[in-house]
């Protein structure tokens, strides 16, 4: 019989590899640590947190076990914890009272809206932590879209005006980085102009340069309460997930308009985009490990189908390997605890 095991190879492994045996450096923990190329540290973490009105309120997001909507007082406590853990920055996302949502998302222009109140409270209590705010309309609109809806169309330019005005209010509340997630054309330049005109030259912009139309945002929509509201999809403004050149064009434009940092979203299924953008632009590059990615790891882990902790760490290190300078991740406090201990 011609069993493969019995075939005599014509060359030895040393002949085949030229004695370059790559397993040599993998033989022990110490040698693996010595040649490890990428590392995850607490400095790589941005923690997205969800906000809700009220006091002493802490509601778990059903599709995101371990993730909570927090009233501002509790968000301040979590910010204190994050700062103690060494997490550099938080990104806040509000679940706005339904009564305050309307067709144009006008509540985003309230200087005392949930985001701005949270920013002020956190900055007052924990000035050393960075605050990143999203100047996007979706938590504020009655239809869950990221723009002003007019005759069935998400109108670009009116949305940009409103987002730029909201960015100034967020900066005035103490936000350090404005991170607009809506993908309207021209928003980065408009926000930069508006911030500069208002004297906020030092407030940075992290562009959601490449936000793809994706099924992985599902649990987030539950978290901010837009899942029942959203009609249709966001394909007229988010990037088609079939495209990669388009992501380069979007990023080029946002950088030309004044973005200080760029972000890719979702994360893990889009590492090719991360690598491409890092190679092309050499800018501070981030990825958002979104709600659906978190939920997948958590669900599989809860079922005993994979080791959740290991999968979490592996996924985060993969972002570093792909070229990320940092990751927005709901795992941030858990990872920070682990890295500390
Ligand atoms: N503007 C922020 C998001 O859309 C987050 C999406 C997610 O975590 O699924
Ligand atoms: Mg763009």
Question: Can you characterise this structure?
Answer:
It is a single chain. The chain is an alpha/beta fold and 341 residues long. The protein has one domain: Aldolase class I (TIM Barrel), CATH 3.20.20. α4 links the parallel β4 and β5. α3 packs across α4. The longest helix has 18 residues. The radius of gyration is 22 Å and the shape is globular. The termini are far apart. The site of 5-azanyl-4-oxidanylidene-pentanoic acid (FVT) has 9 residues, from α10.
List the main descriptive attributes of the protein structure presented here.
18% strand; two-stranded antiparallel sheet; 341 residues; eight-stranded parallel β-barrel; TIM Barrel; binds magnesium ion; binds 5-azanyl-4-oxidanylidene-pentanoic acid; globular; 39% helix; single chain; alpha/beta
CATH topology, by name, is: TIM Barrel
The CATH first-level class comes to Alpha Beta
Tell me the fraction of residues in β-strands, as a range.
Answer: 15-25%
**How widely separated are the two ends?**
56 Å
Helix-strand makeup class: alpha/beta
Strand order of the largest sheet: 1-4-5-8-9-10-11-12
SSE pattern, N- to C-terminal: HHEEEHEHEEEHEHEHHEHEHHEH
Rg over alpha carbons: 22 Å
How large is the count of helical segments? 12
Low-pLDDT runs: none
**Helix content class:** 25-40%
Bound molecules: 5-azanyl-4-oxidanylidene-pentanoic acid, magnesium ion
Catalytic activity: 2 5-aminolevulinate = porphobilinogen + 2 H2O + H(+)
EC number: 4.2.1.24
GO molecular function: porphobilinogen synthase activity
Protein name: Delta-aminolevulinic acid dehydratase
